[in-house]
User: Fold this.
Amino acid sequence: MKQVVVLGAGGKMGYRVSANLRGAPYQVSHIEVSEMGRTRLQELGITCVDPDAALPLADVVILAIPDNAIEKVTAKLAPQFKKGAVLIALDAAAPFAGHLPAREDLTIFVAHPCHPSVFNDETDLEAKRDYFGGLKAKQAIVCALLRGDEANYDLAEDVAKRMYAPVLRSHRATVDQMAILEPVLSETVCATCLTIIREATDEAVRRGVAEEAARDFILGHLNVELAIIFDQMPGVRMSDAANKAVDRAKSEIFQPDWKKVFERDAIAENIRMITTP
Assistant:
């Protein structure tokens, strides 16, 4: 039976991962340095183990620790990792930045959730309200093998599917492509645009629109406009008036060269800020 260690098991993501790996066909051990995290894990019936005892035996080590701590923590623990072990990072930032141990015998794998789509077939109420994923709602995941033995890919992907379950499908990408997806596409672009939408909604309320009316209006329009723009309603297009408003507003709201955020140098600087302690 393969030995899996969750490093940072009591943190935000570590707790989710630990909960989902219960019942997996692996021998799972949990490492957590904070007392608060250890207490949280007790809610799952999990008792943490000593790193010195677990890491040298681990076939897979899940790095459920913050991006800005991965370099320091893994450098300290590098001598303890088993020869040929698979390290699974939950985000592309640290692997992209080269912050993982340089040992050639280690396989470096990255797995990140897509989160449940706004377009889904969930009917269960709990699943419909599982916006983050990993509880009831199905989600896709994206995986990458940064370096190491290709033969380890299937094992690492299986662990990833179990820790992000229920998984709808798994996409394979490169680490550079994952960095395009996050932070650029999901945070730099999407989260920024959605933050502006929220600020615009608050501005409408400030100018006299009833808050409930403003929220109902914008959330409904987000639903139908996303469906149209992402081809969920074949043959349906936005009105001429809406297209004219978009064309005019783009030059007022966005810089003409905004797509430069996808350039590798820009991505590297973005990730440098994320991974800097």
In short: The two ends are 36 Å apart (CA to CA). The first helix runs from residue 12 to 20. Residues 3-173 form a domain with the Rossmann fold fold (CATH 3.40.50.720).
